[in-house]
């Protein structure tokens, strides 16, 4: 007889299923393309739908499972995280930031529409993400909703994603020699904080004990660091066809990365150490966290 453990979905299957569910939820919660502001809605939907691995949303869904959270509730939080992430990509791709022409295998939003519309689409996606979290459909307990709002605001604000982008821009100016510590802080804020929130969000929804929230938070922090190093390795070694975006730009732009500081082999070894640490944080969850452990391995082995 096939055991329940053997019958469990592979990570690839689970990612595909979650991505499809998150896509459907995004389609439902994003504004329709109608009325005088239809162009804004079109840009929001263009930037968010039809691509991406939905790793952050997947983290929300898997982090919610051990606590018996309703799937519809977790999906709304997953959609909010993906909208927040999409906003950050739209703004990062702008000429004033990274000036990228390709994202998820298609023209970036400011090229598909125009720069002003892209800025507004990013602003609207950020606001809409918080509106979704604040809605009673996400959770009946206002205290849970407030905590989700608070944690996402911290993850995306001056001590999170936006602060990390500022550090990234300052590093490109080359006024100070980058160190492993300074690069680690940059990447923790720019990439890691949102991944950390995504990993913790399910525990917030499930009103989990502080120890369980801390374990998922620590998992997300180490996973986020490994993910960013993996991204830097891909930028140096993968093709645009593999990643769906331009590669080789980090070195050309003088970006501060661990690959540039340590070299490919040492950077890969650091990512492997971080992925191993991430897995260890899940020990108390047993088999319920198997897919999250697999995700840590996938993060450093992926080619896109």
UniProtKB/TrEMBL annotation:
Its cofactor is Mg(2+). It comes from the Bacteria. PROSITE patterns: POLYPRENYL_SYNTHASE_1, POLYPRENYL_SYNTHASE_2. The keyword Magnesium applies. InterPro entries: Isoprenoid_synthase_dom_sf, Polyprenyl_synt, Polyprenyl_synt_CS, Prenyl_diphosphate_synthase. The keyword Metal-binding applies. Pfam families: polyprenyl_synt (PF00348). Keywords: Isoprene biosynthesis, Magnesium, Metal-binding, Transferase. Belongs to the FPP/GGPP synthase family. This is Polyprenyl synthetase family protein. It comes from Roseomonas haemaphysalidis. The lineage of its organism: Bacteria, Pseudomonadati, Pseudomonadota, Alphaproteobacteria, Acetobacterales.
């Amino acid at each position: 007889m096939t055991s329940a453990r053997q019958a469990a979905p592979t990570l690839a299957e689970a990612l595909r299923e979650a991505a499809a569910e998150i896509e459907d939820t995004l389609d439902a919660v994003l504004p329709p393309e109608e009325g005088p502001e239809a162009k804004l809605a079109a840009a929001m939907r263009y930037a968010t739908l039809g691509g991406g691995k939905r790793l952050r949303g997947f983290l929300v869904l898997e982090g919610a499972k051990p606590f018996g959270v309703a799937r519809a509730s977790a999906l709304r939080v997953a959609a909010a995280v993906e909208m927040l992430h999409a906003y950050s990509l739209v703004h990062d791709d702008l000429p004033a930031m990274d000036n990228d022409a390709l994202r998820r295998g298609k023209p970036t939003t400011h090229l598909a529409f125009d720069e002003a519309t892209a800025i507004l689409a990013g602003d609207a996606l950020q606001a809409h993400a918080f509106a979704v979290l604040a809605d009673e459909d996400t959770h009946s307990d206002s205290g849970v909703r407030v905590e989700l709002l608070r944690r996402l605001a911290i993850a995306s604000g001056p001590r999170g994603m936006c602060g990390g982008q500022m550090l990234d821009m300052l590093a490109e100016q080359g006024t100070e020699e980058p160190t492993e510590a300074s690069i680690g802080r940059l990447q923790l804020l720019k990439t890691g904080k949102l991944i950390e929130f995504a990993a913790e969000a399910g525990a917030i929804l499930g009103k989990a004990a502080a120890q369980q929230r801390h374990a998922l938070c620590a998992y997300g922090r180490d996973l986020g660091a490994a993910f960013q190093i993996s991204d830097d390795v891909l930028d140096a070694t993968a093709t645009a066809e593999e990643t769906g975006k331009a590669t080789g730009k980090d070195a050309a732009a003088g970006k501060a990365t661990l690959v540039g500081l340590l070299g490919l082999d040492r950077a890969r070894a650091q990512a492997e150490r971080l992925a191993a640490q991430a897995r260890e944080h899940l020990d108390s969850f047993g088999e319920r966290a198997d897919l999250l452990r697999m995700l840590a391995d996938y993060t450093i082995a992926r080619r896109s």
